[in-house]
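Reviewers of the previous submission asked for a worked example of the structure-prediction workflow described in the proposal, so we include one complete record here. The input consisted solely of the amino acid sequence. No template or homolog information was supplied to the procedure at any stage.
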Amino acid sequence: MANRNTTTRWIIAGAAAVVVVAASVVVIVLSLRGDSTEPVSPTAPPTSGPTSTAVPTPRPGEGTTTTEPADVDEVDETVTVGGRERKYKVVAPLDIEDGEELPAVIVLHGLGVSAEGISRAADWRQVVERDRFLAVFPQGEGNSWNMGPCCLPASLVGVDDESFLEEVVARLQARPDVDEDRLYLSGFSNGGLMVYAFACDHPGVFAAIASMAGSNLSRCTPQEPTSLLHQHSDPDSVVPYDGGLSFGQLIAGADFPDVPGSVARWAQDSGCDPRPEQREDDDVEWFTWTGCPDDVRVELVRVPGKGHVWLDRGDFDSLEALLEFFDLS
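From that input alone, the workflow returned the following structure tokens.
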């Protein structure tokens, strides 16, 4: 009976996910017809930028740049969690020497995006080769992460994503080529939601975390001061910058907190000064909270006019901003 109930729940979850993805495909196709600033749904993969009329935005899996292929090693790993096989991809430099310990960045995809898709959303392979670190891309069940009320199908079925990510972290910490003091966690959209929740539940594991187009949906509090970079577009009709009603609320089943207030609370809970320093570069706004203990840093980057997509804009490169924040670049 238990197996029959589980199967039924997967069928229902799958049907619901198909509806969401099908609706999003229309938006994705429209967004790829040009340099549109219309937001895409949370099921859409983050598109790479910057785009131009000469170089169309590539579709997921087609690659995102015209650079030469990176000289890296790619391995698909499999772990068993709760009797279920789970997978993650590891991208690493080819020439790691015996005894060399490198940083590792875990990257969580968005809803409807695969681990492979998010690995192609930016120049991850090129920067892994250039800056010498491991990029790790866990695969969520049904291309989703279980964030309580959000997100289908993982939330409906009750997938134990926390145990899965704990196993990924443990596997990384056990690798002789990984510096366990330099583990980083990042994510886009649904993955960005998971970044907050997982970091709150695992204090001291990550040297820093980063969320793009995500939200502290669980409204959790860091148990110890934790460096955070949050990148977000305004407007974003899926995970709105100012919180409140949105298309994403239909999928999340809960209101998103406003991003500036949420990041400010994280800074406060991490012991930073209450008022951030502010600067602007080509309309991209940076809010930096200083005075934090233990070299902790908290930053919010507001990228105007991009919507719910990968946030490159003009001279602003969101991946480079992330690597600089993680002290990798």
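Residues 129 and 248 are 35 Å apart (CA to CA). We consider this example representative of the routine output the project will generate in years two and three.
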